[in-house]
Write a structure and sequence with these properties.
With 637 residues, the chain is α+β, with helices and mostly antiparallel strands. It is built from 16 helices and 23 strands. Helix 7 packs across helix 8.
Length: 637
């Protein structure tokens, strides 16, 4: 389509397109459809269109006020998400795909709002404060480069040149500032593809050469023995007290690996492709059967939502584009997209599986970020391998134990049960940013009824205030745990980064054992009451058993806390003091104990945690001074 044709259309008033003009636009938008993966393509396209329509509904259009014109107003947050200009790429994709002018107008307005966060050095700030973080320039630059690369013909000559010049300024900032140790590994990893793409769009060999240098350097940031990408800590090469690297699943699968895959395929870097294949296969072990990502242990868990990570872009390109290496990678791309579809309402991606049932408004950041990767998938569709869901996910067919030494984390599976036990001690940066640890059961999943346990931060904190929503109501941790309070100070095993674990698979049962102390946020063990506990998790085909015990005297009120993931509306019953049942659509969950069970009194019965964006029923089993063990069994009937 000629650039000027769309520009001429922008002068048409509020009467909209005439029928002949609309037909002409639609004919221009048509292209030959590939024959493979038709159902997945329809899912991706329909979801992207829904998201673009949702973004248009929250976009501010006021050409008389450059401070707001084009901005995406967030339904949930008081802050302005400055990266909303990234939506230029999916908007222009949808303009070309549908021939509808509203998407072109939205894309132009979204990008030209960038003047509000444009800085003299060529970067964009991540907030209206010009002193805010500007490393996110790499993401805006990729979105702009993709828009120009694929859809520059939709722009008039003057705007096309102006945008290209602006891309050049951003590119120079990235070229001058980004090194492999610039900050978290997701930034230089993303620049591997970003600089290559921008170099091709701007015909600048220096940028392409720098991308190749970064691609060589990033190869040192894969763990042994499982080749997980590490570096999501400050500094990126830091090691924990146990000698473990900083790994975050969410950022890896939804951001960094996309860049590395797209670069390696473009540059035909076979060495990197082989490394990436091994890495993707290891990351894939953490996808649950319904497409959820188990990032219960990740260093940046504070942004974990069950479908991924809140301000990243989605796993579709990395896993979909590599499905020829392992068809299960393609299954992951489909399953993830299906989960994103289930978490979408009114055109916006909600930050968790129970936002709607708990009445939580969606942050617009989730939608414009994830829109980019669906657009990228569709723009590469003709070159994709066949993608379907015939190849099972590893965790769907798993049986036994898989130990990740570099994470001190066990994945277990028996019958329909899937779970994670972790004693991972790496943290994002100095301070109290605590994901699941302490030998905790950080995920419990059942194939029949779905997610049953999912760890949260020990204490929810706005580590990135621009990129997190405040937790509604009381901050109640979702990680199953032993806890006590002494002098109003909270002590729990989930603060203990020195916990140890062992496991075995014998006589049909998987047994994971952890030894941990009850500690406070300052890493101090409780005194004058039991502090040393052994946690035993036994998984058999038909039942999951948890035992927490101590040999020390219990002088303070101590409980095992078991938050069961359950949205508002599921019926809860207590047929006897030692049993609680939760009726789910697919089956009845029965929780029994050797001591009376109680449900913590909270408004509305369910508690909600932004990590991982779910509701839970807070069940508590209290230790008795004469009975120093709590035994809990969970069955699905």
């Amino acid at each position: 389509m000629e650039r000027k044709a769309f520009i001429q259309l922008s002068t048409i008033g509020g009467i909209g397109l005439t029928l002949p003009m609309a037909s002409w636009l639609n004919s221009c938008a048509q292209k030959t459809e590939p024959t493979h993966s038709a159902e997945f393509r329809k899912l991706a396209f329909d979801l992207l269109k829904d998201w673009c329509d949702g973004l248009i509904r929250v976009q501010v259009i006021d050409p008389s006020d450059t401070k707001v014109h084009g901005m995406l107003k967030c339904p949930a947050c008081d802050v302005v998400h400055a990266r909303s200009m990234d939506a230029v790429y999916p908007f222009l994709h949808m303009a070309k795909a549908t021939g509808e002018k509203k998407y072109l107008d939205a894309g132009i307005a979204a990008f030209e709002w960038e003047s509000n966060v444009s800085l003299p050095d060529g970067s964009w700030s991540n907030g209206l404060d010009p002193k805010s973080w500007n490393g996110t320039t790499i993401f805006g630059a990729i979105a702009l480069a993709e828009a120009l690369h694929y859809y520059g013909d939709l722009l008039d000559d003057a705007r096309h040149q102006r945008w290209k010049d602006r891309l050049g300024k951003a590119a120079e900032f990235i070229y001058q500032r980004f090194t492999i140790s610039f900050t978290n590994i997701n930034y230089p990893a993303t620049a591997v593809y970003g600089l290559n793409l921008i170099g091709r769009v701007l015909d600048n060999e220096s940028y392409i050469a720098r991308s190749k240098e970064l691609a060589e350097e990033v190869k040192a940031f894969f763990t042994e023995p499982n080749q997980l990408l590490f570096g999501e800590g400050k500094p990126s090469d830091k090691r924990s007290a146990k000698g473990l690297p900083a790994v975050d699943l969410g950022y890896n699968v939804e951001e960094s690996m996309n860049s590395l895959v797209m670069y390696a395929l473009q540059a035909n870097d076979e060495d990197l492709l082989n490394l990436i294949t091994r890495s993707l296969n290891s990351h894939l072990e953490f996808m649950l059967p319904d497409g959820g990502w188990d990032n219960s242990w990740g260093t940046r868990q504070f942004k974990w939502t069950y479908w991924g990570s809140r301000t990243t872009d989605g796993c579709q390109p990395a896993f979909g584009m590599m499905a020829h290496k392992n068809p299960s990678l393609g299954t992951a791309a489909v399953k993830s997209t299906e989960l994103l579809r289930r978490c979408t309402a009114d055109g916006l991606l909600h930050g968790g599986i129970h936002y709607l049932s708990h009445g939580i408004k969606p942050c617009v950041h989730h939608t414009f970020s994830h829109s980019k990767n669906l657009a990228a998938m569709l723009d590469h569709w003709d070159h994709l391998p066949e993608i379907n869901t015939t190849a099972p996910l590893p965790r769907t067919i798993a049986d036994g134990i898989k130990y990740f030494a570099e994470l001190d984390t066990n994945l277990f599976a028996r019958g329909d049960w899937r779970g994670t036990v972790t004693a991972y001690d790496a943290i994002y940066k100095d301070g109290h940013y605590r994901q699941a640890t302490g030998g905790a059961l950080s995920v419990l999943y059942h194939n029949k009824v779905g997610l049953l346990c999912a760890a949260s931060m020990a204490i929810y904190k706005l580590v990135e205030p621009y990129n997190q929503q405040p937790n509604p109501g009381e901050d109640f941790a979702f990680t199953p745990r032993v806890e006590t309070f002494k002098d109003d100070v909270w002590y729990s095993n989930i603060f203990d980064r020195t916990a140890t674990m062992t496991s075995e698979d014998a006589e049909g049962e998987i047994k994971s054992r952890a030894k941990a102390q009850l500690k406070n946020e300052e890493n101090e063990a409780v005194t004058e009451t039991a502090s040393d506990f052994e946690l035993n998790y036994t998984c058999a085909k038909d039942v999951m058993r948890i035992t927490a015990q101590t040999s020390q005297s219990i002088k303070e009120k101590t409980a095992f806390v078991l938050p069961i993931i359950s949205p508002t509306g599921e019926q809860v019953a207590q047929p006897n003091p030692n049993e609680i049942t939760v009726q789910k659509p697919e089956g009845l969950v029965s929780i029994k104990a050797n001591v009376p069970l109680a449900i913590k009194e909270i408004p509305g019965e369910r508690t909600f945690n932004m990590v991982p964006g779910a509701e839970a029923l807070p069940i508590m089993a209290f230790f008795e001074e004469t009975a120093k063990a709590v035994e809990i069994s969970i069955e699905v009937l």
